[in-house]
Design a protein that fits this description.
The protein starts with a helix and ends with a helix. α1 packs across α4. With 112 residues, it is of the alpha+beta class. Strands 1-2 form a two-stranded antiparallel ribbon. It has a single domain, classed as Orthogonal Bundle (Arc Repressor Mutant, subunit A). A hairpin with a 2-residue loop joins β1 and β2. The model has no long low-confidence stretch (mean pLDDT 90).
Amino acid sequence: MIPEDLRFRLLRLLETNPTLSQREIAAELGLSLGRVNYVLRALIEKGQVKTRNFRMSPNKLRYAYLLTPGGIEEKARLTTGFLQRKLAEHEALQAEIEALQRELGRARGDGR
């Protein structure tokens, strides 16, 4: 199973940069080339991404990875979940920072 955050990051990247090579995608996301290939194949099989050939030079073919309508819907769903998780993390960090500041204030004796 592919983690939701990884699918989100990949769909987001492909939406803005559909002509990236798998090597460029791997470098951008900090993943191995094999992992990128595996995830891309899964997204293609699910019908969320399709490939198109385009010519980079007269002698070379390369793929463009395009989000399908299903891929766009999945990205929107994943975006909502990603945002909710990040907001919850932010709130937890804020609470921890406030607790540490109070603790530090008590240790200094300023009674905060």
